[in-house]
């Protein structure tokens, strides 16, 4: 296990967490008519706070891609899930809310769950699966589920919409991370020529834009606490499924190790929920007015 990979993944999580908070601060003031439309990005690009958040997000994605180039997806993804800790830290400064029992419990569950999963699973590389059917099956399931969640979110945007959009974005980003890992392997094998003649880097770009529209639409219509936990929980689960499913990542499979891995992932999800619902997380301004506007639109 490379210390450099661990440092890069945690730095990526820090950039992502700070970036998400700044993006949501700006997105909640965007025109409601831009919901699930690429126009939303064109409106937000004129907001300095959103641009700062995007800059941090891009830095996080680059650091995450470098970490994926040197480590397994099953190792990097749980570490990226700690972005919620950094989001809470910045939100706590903004709201001046103490952590309290809920915050400390969420922190302990998230950090402890990530540690338990990594130590019990001992993620390591292996030979990638060459069967294209298996690749497309796993990717198709993830993206098909993301599409279904998005369609449901469009009908339920006053209630479960933001959470469903965030879940969909998490699945999209998990697949994007897997394809980023594939692109990194192709670059190591044949340089830019090998990368540019394959479909994966172009799919990474399309998935990145799609995920961005989903996330900003979720940020636009509800406070951060209703979207970021779902995004943070779905992304590592989708990434781990892709890593084990077709990238050749290997985990320990004896009964004890599997039990600890399952417990670790459950603790991660529980910690994410507790931290996401913490009072320090921004609750938005004028939420009821925005909901009434949505009802009229």
Automatic annotation (TrEMBL):
Q: Which UniProt keywords apply?
A: Membrane, Transmembrane, Transmembrane helix
Does the keyword section mention Chaperone?
A: no
Is DNA-binding included in the keywords of this UniProt record?
no
TM spans, by residue? 50-70, 103-121, 133-151, 158-176, 196-215, 227-246, 258-277
Question: What protein is this chain from?
Answer: DMT family transporter
Which species does the entry assign this protein to?
Streptomyces violaceolatus
């Amino acid at each position: 296990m490379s210390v450099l990979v661990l440092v890069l993944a945690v730095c990526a999580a820090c950039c992502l967490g700070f970036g998400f908070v700044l993006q949501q601060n700006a997105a909640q003031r965007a025109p409601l008519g831009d919901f699930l439309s690429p126009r939303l990005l064109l409106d937000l690009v004129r907001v300095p706070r959103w641009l700062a958040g995007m800059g941090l997000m891009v830095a996080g994605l680059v650091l995450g891609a470098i970490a994926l180039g040197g480590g397994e997806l099953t190792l990097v993804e749980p570490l990226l899930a700690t972005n919620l800790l950094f989001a809470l830290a910045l939100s706590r400064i903004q709201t001046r809310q103490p952590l309290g029992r809920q915050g400390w419990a969420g922190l302990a569950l998230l950090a402890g769950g990530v540690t338990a999963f990594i130590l019990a699973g001992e993620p390591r590389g292996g030979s990638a699966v060459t069967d294209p059917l298996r690749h497309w099956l796993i990717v198709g399931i993830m993206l098909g589920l993301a599409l279904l969640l998005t369609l449901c979110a469009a009908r339920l945007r006053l209630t479960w919409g933001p959470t469903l959009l965030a879940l969909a974005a998490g699945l999209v980003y998990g697949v994007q991370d897997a394809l980023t890992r594939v692109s990194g392997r192709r670059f190591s094998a044949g340089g830019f020529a090998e990368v540019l003649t394959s479909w994966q880097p172009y799919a990474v770009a399309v998935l990145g834009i799609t995920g961005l529209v989903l996330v900003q639409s979720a940020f636009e219509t509800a406070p951060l606490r209703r979207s970021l936990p779902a995004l943070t929980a779905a992304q590592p689960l989708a990434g781990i499924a892709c890593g084990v499913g077709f990238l050749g990542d290997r985990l320990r499979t004896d009964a004890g190790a599997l039990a600890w891995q399952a417990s670790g992932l459950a603790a991660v999800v529980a910690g994410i929920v507790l931290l996401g619902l913490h009072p320090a997380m921004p609750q938005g301004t004028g939420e009821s007015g925005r909901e009434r506007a949505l009802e009229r639109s």
